Amino acid sequence: MKSYEVQIWEIGKRADRKARPWRVRWAVSGQRFEDMFRTKALAHSFRAELVQAANAGEPFDPATGRPVSEARTKNPTTWYAHSRAYVEMKWPRAAAKTRRSIVEALTSITVTLTRPSKRGRPTDALLREALYLYGLNPRRWSEEIPGDHAAALAWLETASVPVVELDSPAVVRRVLDSLCVRLDGKSAAASTVQRKRATFYNVLGYAVELELIASNPVDRVQWTAPEVAQSIDRRVVANPAQVATLLEAVKSLGKRADKVTAFFGCLYYAGMRPSEAADLRREDCDLAGRCADCGADFDDLAAVKPSRSCKHEKIEHRWAAWCSPAPRRAPARTGPMTAAPTSGADSSTGGGLRLGRSRSRLGSSNCCAPTSRITGSARTVGSFGACTVGRCRSRSTTGGGSSPARRR
What is the pLDDT of residues 309-322, one digit of tens each? Predict the structure, then answer.
């Protein structure tokens, strides 16, 4: 609770106090406070601070009688303790890959925000490993921590800088600059820098919410993150002639030729993920509902999760947006696809591009689509030019255009 009702009296002297006779009295919301000082100069200095805070319109704490800014500077909460509080707050509603992304960013930042002069500092590699596996992973907080990792985390609890020190632009700039460098000393990818900066900004915003700092210090630093390239690098994207050569080459695989041809055709012409193309069937589409490479440390369930919407997407509109009728495309792109489902198709599954491998091996690391089953006339499999199944809608061009932008 804060109060702006502050009353400050003149300095008085008590004759019955010889050690500290000078008294400063003030009241906050009717609650009276006083403090005794040895000299009159010290009493004047303290009273001047109270008057300055009151004239600046700063709120006072009725419980302590001191300005809120003074109580904030004396807050002992460290960056490591605040990071754990932030992870604990975000964990229940975050997906597995989001959890891992948060832990990775906070691991790098927390190692940076330590006092280098603190004795007994473990190696940076051990600190990162202890933070990633135990310190910032709520699922393992109840487990017994190995000796080396426990010692590293115990050192970190005392060496981590207080959150109030991040109110300094110099400290914030040091953290932001560290995000631009990989462990091997080379420059980090622009997307990685932006992702970690976003996490850093959100954690500081949570500190503002908890009143550990007055405002987000990142807003006061003139620092620009590297820009993420939006254009396609044609040197690494196959052109139509190269793809046609590839599709002709895989026809020599024998019995599996039709399915493999359709598989690679879907990747190029429809912009599908490997897991989406592998699971494509005549009657339905079964998209993997669990991120294949997030690791059990960040995922609550080992089985497929219940169906849910994608990030920033309203549930009531997602199927209407995903399942639009496929436009007609050039017949040259439909040949390999129309042949694949009927060759060796399993009648129990309705046919599809099952290539004899497990879904986890073919699954893309970026595939976190919800499990769903779509049937009916809204879905067609006779064209590479449009995929109307799940999230893999077509972004290809008609005719002999260039390759669609691949989703990362």
Answer: 455 544 444 333 33
Cβ neighbours of residue 36 closer than 8 Å, sequence gap 6 or more: 14, 17, 20, 21, 22, 23
pTM comes to 0.55
Q: Which pLDDT band, with edges at 50, 70 and 90, does 300 fall under? A: low
Residue 396: band (very low, low, confident or very high) from pLDDT cuts 50, 70, 90: very low
Cβ-contact 255, 355 below 8 angstroms = no
Higher pLDDT, 395 or 49: 49
Secondary structure of the chain as H, E, C letters: CCECCEEECCCEECCCCCCCCEEEEEEECCEEEEEEECCHHHHHHHHHHHHHHHHCCCCECCCCCCEHHHHHHCCCCEHHHHHHHHHHHHHHHCCHHHHHHHHHHHHHHHHHCECCCCCCCCCHHHHHHHHHHHHCCHHHCCCCCCHHHHHHHHHHHHHECEHHHHHCHHHHHHHHHHCCECCCCCECCHHHHHHHHHHHHHHHHHHHHCCCCCCCHHHHCCCCCCCCCCCCCCCCCCCHHHHHHHHHHHHHHHHHHHHHHHHHHHHHHCCCCHHHHHCEECCCECCCCCCCCCCCCCCCCCCCCCCCCCCCCCHHHHHHHHCCCCCCCCHHHCHHHHHCCCCCCCCCCCCECCCCCCHHHHCCCCCCCCCCCCCCCCCCCCCCCCCCCCCCCCCCCCCCCCCCCCCC
Q: What is the mean pLDDT of the chain?
A: 74
